[in-house]
Amino acid sequence: MLRLATSRTLILLSSFIVAALPTFAATTIFSENFSTNGTLNGMSPDVGGTWSGSSGLTVEDGVLDTALSNTPSPDSISASFTQALGSGEILGLSFITTETQGLFATNGYAGLTLYAGGTEYFFIGSPGLVDEWGITGTGLSASTQTFTPALTAEAQTVYFTYEYDTGDWSLNIGGENLNGTGVANLEIDSVGIVSDGYNIADIAISSIGLELIPIPEPGSYALLFAGGLLGLLVLRRRITK
């Protein structure tokens, strides 16, 4: 009877610890699927603030292709998040590109950029003077980073993360990875699309998503370990009973 009571007590305590663990669900702070045709400037994304910038950038058939502006001058447009990145969080970015009707890059830049307080810190795309994917910006604490061998295909699925407290960042494009440690404590709060102009450098984007991912507190790891340890004790008592 004592063994049975002890096992039940351990099961209840283990269940309580697991139930007490916080959930680490990501929060969507920006989402855009370009579902409405027309001029992007002034449009509202699915989640986030209104797009503001170059009037020539146009959505057509679910894609924002900077080549449709059909102007040789640079294009730029941006929109804010519902909330900025902060301490204890990781920013997760994903976006999908297709073939542009212009040129992905010749002697210019075209891509997606991340801002904090109106200052550009990360640029992902063709970083200028090279016809390939890479990342640049003052948030890197390093020079422009590109892949080896070079990634040149326009149609890609892109993933980027940046940790507020450490400055650690990672970039995955087509299964290839770049990573490093840049400037910490950047309150990233908006996203932009930029290009050097039609037939100089263009990019076509079909979706953009950004999330804030909470980092578990050390105490949460301890609770999780304790819950697992109690579970093992329960299993051991059942086996030896």
Structure description:
The protein is 17% helix and 37% strand. The protein contains two helices and 16 strands. Helix 1 runs antiparallel to helix 2 (218-240). It is globular, with a radius of gyration of 23 Å. Mean pLDDT is 82; it is low at 1-21 and 223-241.
Q: Approximately what portion of the residues adopt beta-strand conformation? A: 35-45%
Sheet/helix structural class? alpha+beta
Mean pLDDT over all positions: 82
CATH topology-level fold name = Jelly Rolls
Tally of helical runs: 2
Low-confidence stretches: 1-21, 223-241
**Helix/strand order:** HEEEEEEEEEEEEEEEEH
Total number of strands: 16
Oligomer: single chain
Biggest sheet descriptor: 9 strands, antiparallel
Number of domains: 1
Helix content: 10-25%
Query: In one word, what is the shape?
Result: globular
**From the alpha-carbon coordinates, what is the Rg to the nearest angstrom?**
23 Å
- The N- to C-terminal Cα distance equals 11 Å
Based on the coordinates given, report the CATH architecture: Sandwich
CATH class: Mainly Beta
